[in-house]
Design a protein that fits this description.
two-stranded antiparallel ribbon; elongated; five-stranded mixed sheet; alpha/beta
């Protein structure tokens, strides 16, 4: 506990001027912030230091705690007043935004584990972070980890008709070298029409086992009512969706187009891209199927492999046409996740190599927490009327299945 003798402002200034070695500017700032803290803590406690005011006092003071504060005029040793009940943070020490705290924590952790690059060193210097111990880093990370853990484990209430799944490859340091790992993200639209980030995780690779475990963890938290799942065509992911969710699957049309351009010569790519995009601009599902057949016929001679893949993927590419027209642009690809992925990628470019899995989850998790908060206060992603259509159709389908099951039971009993 810091022992602090309260001085008047005049006494403090006189002390600074009397010292021949004093840094007047830095000491002046120290005097000013000390007065600010005394004023704020007095207002919070309801009485000044040493004042007897039982009628006004709402809290008792409890000494001071030391804290270093880096400023443009140099490092200042603060003695922050404490309260016996409650907490106090000086107004001039605004807490960092959570995502920025996460970025700092990742950089610090990389630094103290000896995996920093010159770019990270420069960033550390610009932030004024010096002399950090592993204990300090651990304390800073603990609060962020608790927030991310609570976010990843929160209950999922209500139905989520639409679910998007995507993965990003990030570099993580492990004993013996650096490995590429999969950061997977689940994002959905709630029955209220609002977007939500449901969860994230880090795995060794995009295997069926990993995706299955991830989806089961979402179901254990309450994920239900999924009518359509949108993702790329990773076979392990497709199998996990069928096994765990049992819903319809929409193949991302953007990923599909990108794959098809890899199966043809450069001179054919503009023509093939235009033809395939026309399919997804159809006004009805029937028209889209007609266009797909026409495009496949046109491509059979110049690009037979593309024509065959297009025909085989027809049902998966056009699944979104079974839902309200207002939703089509949002359902045919994983593009809604692109902005989030770019933000994570921008931070990853700064970090370079994550020290461990937890550092990756911490940074990505805090970004997703902030993104989720923004979505919750924005207007609905899908209108209430259109989302009700999807939910009503789901109820009718469920009733039909229930009636069919009861009919089968009656027939079996009669037999």
């Amino acid at each position: 506990m810091a022992e602090v003798k309260s001085l008047t402002t005049r006494e403090a200034v006189e002390g600074v001027l009397a010292s021949e070695h004093a840094d007047v500017l830095r000491e002046s700032v120290a005097v000013m912030v000390r007065e600010i803290m005394e004023l704020e803590i007095g207002q919070l406690a309801g009485a000044e230091l040493g004042e007897r005011a039982p009628g006004r006092r709402s809290a008792q003071r409890n000494g001071y705690r030391d804290r270093r504060w880096d400023t443009r005029v140099g490092e200042i040793e603060l003695a922050i007043p404490r309260l016996r009940s409650g907490s106090y943070l000086p107004s001039f020490l605004e807490p960092r935004r959570r995502a920025e705290q996460a970025l700092v924590a990742v950089v610090q952790e990389a630094y103290v584990n000896g995996v920093s690059t010159r770019k990270v060193d420069r960033l550390v210097e610009q932030m004024g972070l010096r002399g950090l111990s592993k204990d300090q880093v651990s304390r800073m990370c603990r609060g962020l980890d608790e927030q991310v853990s609570a976010f990843r484990g929160r209950p999922l209430e209500g139905a989520y008709p639409y679910l998007w799944l995507d993965a990003k490859i990030e570099r993580v340091r492990e004993r013996g070298g650096v490995r590429q790992k999969a950061l997977v993200i689940a994002y959905a639209v709630h029955e209220s029409g609002v977007r939500e980030v449901l969860g994230l995780d880090v795995g060794e690779a995009e295997t069926e086992a990993f995706w299955t475990e991830f989806l089961f963890s979402l179901k254990a938290r309450g994920l239900s009512g999924v009518r359509l799942c949108v993702s790329d065509a990773h076979q392990g992911l497709r199998n996990a969706i069928a096994r765990v969710l049992g819903c319809r699957w929409q193949r991302c049309t953007v990923h599909f187009l990108r794959d098809m351009l890899g199966h043809c010569g450069r001179q054919l790519q503009p023509m093939i891209a235009t033809a395939i995009r026309q399919i997804f601009g159809a006004d009805t599902g029937e028209q889209a199927r007609e266009r797909l057949a026409e495009v496949a016929d046109r491509l059979r001679a110049p690009a037979p492999k593309v024509a065959g893949l297009l025909e085989n993927a027809e049902d998966d590419l056009l699944a979104f046409y079974s839902f309200p027209k207002e939703h089509w642009p949002k359902l045919r690809s994983t593009n809604p996740l692109e902005r989030v992925n770019k933000e994570i990628g921008r931070r990853s470019d700064v970090v370079g190599i994550y020290p461990n899995d937890q550092a990756l989850i911490r940074l990505a998790g805090m970004l997703l927490v902030e993104q989720n908060d923004e979505w919750l206060i924005q207007r609905r992603y899908l209108s209430d009327h259109s989302i009700r259509q999807v939910l009503s159709e789901a109820d009718r389908s469920e009733n039909t299945r229930s009636n069919n099951n009861q009919k089968e039971v009656i027939e079996l009993n009669a037999a």
